[in-house]
Amino acid sequence: MDGRSGSVKCWKSPYGGRMTGSYRAPSGRGFGENPYMHVSAKAEYAVRAAAELAAAGKGPVKGDRIAEAQGIPLKFLENILSELRHAGIVQSQRGAEGGYWLARPPDQVTLADVIRVVDGPLANVRGARPETVAYGGSASHLLEVWIAVRVSLRSVLERVTLADLIAGTLPAEVRDLTEVPDAWVSRSAAAAPPPPRRAGRPVRPLDAG
Fold first, then answer.
1. What angle is formed at CA 13 by the lines to CA 34 and CA 117, rounded to 5 degrees?
2. Sign (positive or negative) of CA dihedral 75, 81, 82, 84
3. Which DSSP string corresponds to 13-52?
4. Which residues contact 196 (CB under 8 A, 6 or more apart)?
5. How far apart are the first and last CA of the chain?
6. Of the candidates 69, 81, 152, 88, which has an alpha carbon nearest to the alpha carbon of residue 118?
7. What is the pLDDT of residues 51-81, one digit of tens each?
8. Cβ atoms of residues 99 and 92 within 8 Å
9. In the chain, which residues have pLDDT < 70?
């Protein structure tokens, strides 16, 4: 996604490249502050709001009801729903009996559809689509890696629909990914065990005299 909101920005590198989202320089607390997968608040809120509409079925749902159910700031939610409405994913009606509802059946709206509306392309490299960048020398094949990352994102986000999400029935190929042995284990620097302490004189307690 682009830099408009922080984006699904998966694959942020502490060295300056990014697969999605605005890059944040490493802080003094270590590279673990910049996880390799970052989902913007806007994208997450949009998917959660769309899921609420999918679960509600036909008929308008008040924005404040969605905001309360998902803990989303109402003003932020209204901006997101407005973008989804302009994209043809959500419809709305004003008035006492008004509210929001999905413009298409939940099984015809993918997570990718929602995320692209609020955050732009699923993957980008420094704000550009992967296929538009070029590298030379020893990095000449890096473009192929970025393309593969985009395909990987699509393989999940374009397969899972709102209907799948609210029913908890993810496509088999997506669910299989969650069952890979280390799927739930972080590989960020923050998750690494602390280095062993070197042998030396024991530390004397401060109150030992």
1. 80
2. positive
3. -TTS-BSSS-----BTTBGGGS-SB---HHHHHHHHHHHH
4. none
5. 59
6. 81
7. 999 999 888 999 999 999 999 999 999 999 9
8. yes
9. 1-37, 189-209
Q: Which amino acid is at 6?
A: G
The domains of the chain are located at: 40-180
Structure tokens at 134: 């070029």
- What pLDDT shows up at residue 125? 85
DSSP state letter for 125:
B
Neighbours of 54 (CB within 10 A): 21
Residue where the block lists tokens 């939610």: 77
The predicted pLDDT at position 128 comes to 84
- Scanning 57-201, the segments in alpha helix (DSSP H) are 63-70, 74-86, 111-119, 142-157, 162-167, 172-178
Which fold is adopted by the domain 40-180?
Arc Repressor Mutant, subunit A (1.10.10)
- Is 25 exposed, middle or buried (CB count within 10 Å of its CB: 0-12, 13-18, 19+)? exposed
Residue showing tokens 């700031």: 73
pTM (predicted TM-score): 0.72
Say how far apart CA 147 and CA 107 lie, in whole Å: 27
Q: Copy the structure tokens of residue 153.
A: 């994102």
> Which of these, 121, 168, 184, 123, lies nearest to 148 by C-alpha position?
123
* β-bridge partners, 10: 37
